[in-house]
Amino acid sequence: MLVKLYRRWPRLEASGDPIAYAHRILVNTHVSVRRPTGDLPEGTHGPDPAARVDAALALRQALQTLTPRQRAVVVLRHYEDLNERSVAEILGCSVGTVKP
Predict the structure, then answer these.
(1) Apex CA 37: angle with CA 35 and CA 41, to 5°?
(2) N or C: which terminal CB in the chain sees fewer CB atoms within 10 Å?
């Protein structure tokens, strides 16, 4: 996937937004895999380690109920902190599709 980006980088840099293209490659690759990978980042900071584990498990279960594209929206909006317009451009859909 990164080789594809590397080959096209000079042309993308000269004519467009290579960062958006890189996001698009990563999202498309993730969506095509269709399986959760790795551990979720720690998002809760409670004093009780057991509560943090419970929260992480609940989050993982909730994310697994989403389609790969829905998970991509959640990651791009909340983990990458992108706005709705940017996410829509990366995913090649309308802004209305990205809105909650």
Answers:
(1) 135
(2) C
Instruction: Give 34's contacts (C-beta < 8 A, 6+ positions apart).
Output: 68
- Amino acid at site 50: A
Buried b (16+ CB within 10 A) or exposed e, 70-89: ebbbebbbeeeebebebbbb
Only one residue has tokens 């929260």, namely 55
If we measure between CA atoms, which residue out of 57, 60, 90 comes closest to residue 72?
A: 90
- The region that residue 66 occupies, defined by phi over 0 for left and psi between -120 and 50 for alpha, beta otherwise, is beta
The pLDDT tens digits for 50-67 are 788 888 888 888 888 999
DSSP-assigned letters across all residues of 39-69 = PPPP----S-HHHHHHHHHHHHHHHHTS-HH
Q: What is the pLDDT of residues 1-40, one digit of tens each?
A: 577 777 777 887 777 777 777 788 778 777 776 655 556 5
What per-residue confidence (pLDDT) applies to 35? 59
